[in-house]
Amino acid sequence: MVYVGEECCSSYLSGLTEFLRLFVTLHLRRLEAWPQFPVLDLLALLFRYTFLQPDLDAYYGCLDIWAVFLDHLATKCSLKTENREAVAAKYHEAVLSLLERLDDEREDPDGQTEWSELLRRTADLLERVATLYPLDVRALLLTGWHETLEPYVSLPSLLVSAAAFGSAQRLHEAELPPGALRPTLVEVHAQSLATLRPWCHWMTAALAGHLSTSVQVDDLVAEMTVAVTVRSGALVDCPQIQQLYGRAGQLTLGKQDRLLLYRALSSLLLLPWQRAGDQLWEERRRHLAVFLDSLTAEFRRLRLTPGLADSRELRDRAKPVISQTLSTLSEIVTNVRSEVTKTKQLCHDCLQDTIRDSLWVFTVFAAQPDVCQDVLSFFLAAFEALRAQMGGQFAEQCVQMFIDVFSRDALARNMLEEGRWRLRLKVPFFDLLAAVLEHNWRYFFRSSVLKTLSSVAEEDEVTNEKQFVVILEAMGQSFLQADINVFRLNLATLQMLNCKWKLYHKPVFRRLLLARFMTVLLQTLLQRSHDLLRDEIAGCLHELAAVDFADFFDRFVPGVLLDTPGLDAPQRRTLAALLPRRTDLPTFSADLHRFVSDLRYYPAGQ
Q1: pLDDT tens digits, one per residue of 216-258
Q2: Is 64 inside any structural domain?
Q3: Percentage above 70 pLDDT, the chain
Q4: pTM of the model
């Protein structure tokens, strides 16, 4: 056996490991059939070789060999011509010895143990062994589990006692002199409550639905833990919970505490209860209406405030109310995005008046980007989560309203100027426009059954051309800005709309926007303003050109060269020849990048 130590060349070890892998892969099956071949001795040597490796990379190379061997063993056991019991018994000791040596004593440079790294990178090896020897693997794991579990058996009761004591004594409200003691007590109390979360399912099952009230559930962390993790309908009947629903809008809390509490309270009413036969949706509706009325009362009163639209002072005072209410509602709505239809319908029914009020707020505060950002973020969250419940007619009204408020001039002023607030406003605005275009395509292109069934191809008629063009022009104008995140978002939106709805082939797009988009994207490549997206830009240009490749090569490219200053006719012909009529994406992209590079430097070189 080769001695493996620091003095052994790493390249030699790597070559030897590769030789062993090939030997096991290609020759073991044949040699195993020869009775005189000492296969168990070979495995014993491989076993020693595996656990004498000087570093983890070499060690994992050896584990790959064991994986190949176990695959071979599993295949052999599955053959009808083989005696499974005899084959398994033959290699039982070798394989179980491998498992027992996979301990946690060796650490890698990042501090991870060998066992945790093994689980992360080679879990399939354990699966192979368990397939061959399930009872042995189960016994091995249970032994380690029982040994590890023993110190923690009494942990849940200790945690409950600590959490109950902290809540009963209200340590988080204790009046103490300034210093580190009070923050420490708050931290300890919060951590003891948060640590209970993994045990909530077992505690609830053990209590058979009888929830203990020894821990004050109006504590923020406890409320979040119990409501979101356990989802027990018994909580709704707690007097403290019912009081919170009616007082939600009157509580004075920090932003994070407020979001945590409100999300917990809404989750308890909106998310399906676990192991509950009757979900009591109507009772939930009553509680949710009370909760949201309390939460949005001040926000809804804004519409009744005389002179709000004309008074800057009143608008400034209203901003914190708008921001706090809409950020909270955005959190609640986002939380139900992946939930069942019943949950979404309940959420929409109780929020629909507030959604309409938010649109009114948008019209009043359209010139103030900070408020617009809050409204757009909320409406985007509501649109993505509750699109089906909001209905197509209401979505069309919203589209019309947004376009009317952000007229062409207002768009240029509010969206395309640089500035701290405007940069923050762009992403939610364009996110919303993308969602509107994707999910309300029929608002712009209405198709009839007769047109669909007609054998004669008719041009798609755009029914709201002005709004459609304004939205896409806003996206095109954003390509002239420095914000790469907005550029990436809108480029992806265009490609998505073309893939889903054939945007580039629509007559209105070809007539008014196709050449303009190709020009601005080509200029972006020339100016290298967004070089990180050069491949995505080339892919988009390919899709745009594919609408009519002949027109692209015969009219668009010569037009670009004609508009480029400093080029004479022979130079234009030379540059045009660098972009041959090759239309597959990889070749087109390579030709386009070469053309752009030469067009960028050719005038300077001349």
Answers
A1: 434 444 544 455 555 667 677 777 778 878 887 777 777 777 7
A2: yes
A3: 75
A4: 0.56
Residue 287 has pLDDT above 70, yes or no: yes
- Domain final residue, candidates 388, 422, 443: 388
Q: State mean pLDDT over 282-307.
A: 91
* Cα–Cα distance for residue pair 16/221, rounded to 1 Å: 56
Q: What is the mean pLDDT of residues 359-388?
A: 87
Closest CA to 380 of 426, 433, 416, 310: 433
Q: Using CA atoms, how far apart are residues 518 and 502, in angstroms rounded to an integer?
A: 16
Classify residue 450 by burial, with Cβ atoms within 10 Å: 0-12, 13-18, 19+: exposed
445 pairs with which residues across the strands? 462
pLDDT at 118: 58
Run of H or E including 149: helix 134-149
DSSP 238-286: -HHHHHHHHHGGG----HHHHHHHHHHHHHHHHSPPTT-S---HHHHHH
**Tokens matching residue 442:** 């029929």
- The count of structural domains within the chain is 5
Res 553: pLDDT: 94
Which candidate, 215, 368, 350, places its Cα nearest to that of 285? 350
The 3-state DSSP composition of the chain as helix, strand, coil percent (nearest 5) reads 75, 0, 25
Tell me the residue range of the domain where 144 lies: 10-151
Residue 595 CA to residue 560 CA, distance in Å, equals: 12
Phi and psi at 76, nearest 5°, equal: -65, -40
Examine residue 521 and state whether it is found in any structural domain, yes or no: no
Q: 72-95 pLDDT, tens per residue?
A: 888 877 775 667 777 777 777 777
Is 403 in the same domain as 501?
yes
DSSP 3-state of 445: strand
Residues 21 and 143 in one domain: yes
Query: Max alpha carbon distance in the chain (Å)?
Result: 100
d(CA 117, CA 192) in angstroms, rounded, equals 30
Q: Return the pLDDT at 501.
A: 92
b/e 188-208 (16+ beta carbons within 10 angstroms → b): ebbebbebbbebbeebbeeee
Phi and psi (nearest 5°) for 196? -70, -15
Residues near 162 by Cβ (< 8 Å), separated by ≥ 6? Answer: 192
pLDDT of residue 2: 47
In a domain, 102, yes or no: yes
Using the 3D structure, point to which of 336, 356, 388 is the last residue of a domain. Answer: 388
Tens digits of residue pLDDT in 22-70: 888 888 777 877 778 888 888 888 888 888 888 777 888 888 888 888 8
User: Do both 559 and 436 map to the same domain?
Assistant: no
pLDDT tier at 540 (50, 70, 90 boundaries)? very high
The Cα–Cα gap between 200 and 590 comes to: 58
Q: Which residues pair with 462 in a beta bridge?
A: 445
